[in-house]
Design goal:
mainly alpha, 69% helix
């Protein structure tokens, strides 16, 4: 729990406001019995805390809160009591009590941004995602500067989580609207917000706020986000008014220019060279990307403190390096780069993400047995639902390639059981096993759902192959092309989107 909540409990234990007030008696009139009982409870709680009996203190403070004397106590005392009770309940993992106490504290006029931050944190730790999203939204609306206390990944996670709640579009829009109006920007200037801005622009369009939508859309610089706006007919009101602004290559070039300008002054973030390399690859300049990454990785290897974000970004630098090597057709070196990335711990834990990426790359490189072994080596207990989906996709495709249909079917069934958490992995797996009827059914269902439409729309766009495609990649693309031409898929697509064919010159 945040230190300030524990400090509130500590105030009680060392004779701060709560126990001090327990000894105060107004001269006139004499205290009512309820007030006296309330003050005695505070003194008892202070004694329990000084004796290290946190659970007894919690029970006594809970009783004090429920007593008639609580209502007549000074507001600041009531506020402090609720915060102390929240901290003690968190220590006891009594989540229902913690949520109730912090909800009461935030309902008071004295509530601060710290209180709402605590309400979000209690809900998050209790696993109540709906309440966590709601609390973070209120925090962003009422105390927007408090968002700077959260790291970029946390804000991004909860923005995405908002869309998974019931009535997800409305919940997501309210949070992003508050974040945008509050002026939040990532602490890491190399973080790309294109997808958030694309979704925000769509929400603004839906609500008739066209001028604001145009401003947000103009900030989108990531190629895939621009492709989605061109493919999704809900954006036609914007794209139709200025198609010259929605050119993938121009946007990538603008992003590269912005990154290179930042790199002149921000040299302590590994995320900078990674962002530069990713954009260079998107522009078919993988040789330059490789040089950037090799220099950054060499610097990191020479000095464990070379970059401030080294502990979280080094493995991703290896991952991006393998993308550059793959683009150049250097498959074995690419696999070695991923294997190196998988050996780099991530926040002190085994690197599950890069291990799974290695398994997928081994499938693509026609090494199905190695892919099966790599997937089996990843710890399931450390995986998110999406991580499990990646692992099961790799397992399905590897087993199908290795001629083990029973194993492929078992992995496919597990993947299907994950439902929406599988995201695009389900379609990839169905293409691997050649079940185009099931793949078409999935595509049609996803196109019909506004919340899950975008990844499928992006998948259906016709983009040129990389300069050195693999046999696996060509096979998957050929099956995807069959899907694009199916009458049932086209009938589902026509009302809501389109397929755009991109030439190399449009992207590179």
């Amino acid at each position: 729990m945040r230190r300030w909540i524990l400090a509130a409990a500590a105030v009680v234990s060392v004779g701060g406001p709560l126990p001090a007030l327990a000894g105060v008696r107004p001269k006139a009139p004499a205290p009512a019995a309820s007030e006296d009982a309330f003050q005695m409870a505070l003194a008892e709680a202070g004694a329990a805390l000084r004796n290290g009996d946190m659970e007894q203190a919690r029970k006594v403070l809970q009783r004090a809160w429920r007593s008639p004397g609580f209502a007549t106590a000074p507001a600041d005392l009531r506020h402090d009591l609720l915060l102390a009770l929240t901290g003690l309940a968190v220590e006891a993992k009594a989540w229902a009590d913690a949520k109730e106490a912090i909800a009461a504290a935030t309902a008071m006029p004295e509530a601060t941004g710290d209180d709402w931050m605590a309400r979000w944190e209690v809900a998050a730790r209790a696993g109540d995602k709906a309440e966590a999203v709601a609390s973070l939204t209120t925090l962003a609306e009422r105390f927007p500067k408090s968002l700077s206390d959260l790291d970029d990944d946390t804000v991004d996670y909860w923005i995405n989580e908002a869309s998974r709640q019931p009535q997800g579009e409305a919940v997501h829009f309210r949070l992003v609207d508050a974040v945008a109006k509050g002026g939040w920007t990532p602490a890491d200037p190399f973080v790309d917000l294109s997808d958030m801005r694309r979704r925000y622009a769509l929400g603004l369009l839906t609500r008739g706020r066209v001028a604001e939508a145009e401003r947000e859309a103009a900030k989108v610089t990531f190629g895939e986000a621009i492709m989605l706006m061109r493919a999704d007919k809900r954006f036609d009101a914007l794209v139709g008014t200025g198609p010259q602004r929605f050119v993938v290559k121009s946007a990538s070039q603008a992003r590269l220019k912005a990154i290179e300008a930042l790199l002149k002054t921000d040299t302590r973030r590994l995320s900078g060279p990674i962002a530069q390399a990713e954009t260079l690859i998107a522009l078919n300049r993988a040789d330059e990307a490789l040089a950037v990454l090799d220099a950054a990785i060499a610097r990191a290897n020479a000095d464990p403190k070379a970059f401030d974000d080294q502990s979280t970004k080094l493995s991703w630098a290896h991952n991006t390096r393998q993308a550059a090597l793959n683009w150049l057709g250097r498959r074995e070196e690419a696999l070695e780069a991923l294997a190196a990335g998988a050996r780099v711990p991530e926040r002190g834990q085994p690197n599950i993400n890069q291990t799974l990426n290695l398994a997928v790359a081994q499938v693509s490189a026609n090494q199905p047995r190695a892919a099966l072994a790599t997937a089996a080596s990843a710890r399931m207990d450390l995986m998110s639902p999406y991580g499990k989906a990646v692992m099961l996709k790799a397992k399905t495709c590897a087993a199908a390639t290795a001629g083990e249909p029973a194993l492929a079917l078992a992995a496919r069934r597990e993947l299907e059981a994950l439902g929406d958490a599988a995201k695009g992995n389900s379609l990839d797996a169905l293409l691997c096993v050649g079940d185009l009827d099931a793949a078409a059914k999935l595509v049609i269902a996803r196109l019909a759902d506004a919340e899950s439409r975008s990844p499928i729309l992006l998948e259906l766009q016709r983009t040129p192959p990389s300069p050195h495609p693999t046999a696996y990649g060509l096979s998957q693309e050929a099956k995807l092309e069959q899907l694009r031409q199916r009458p049932d898929v086209l009938a589902a697509l026509e009302p809501i989107g389109r397929i755009v064919r991109y030439a190399p010159a449009d992207l590179w």
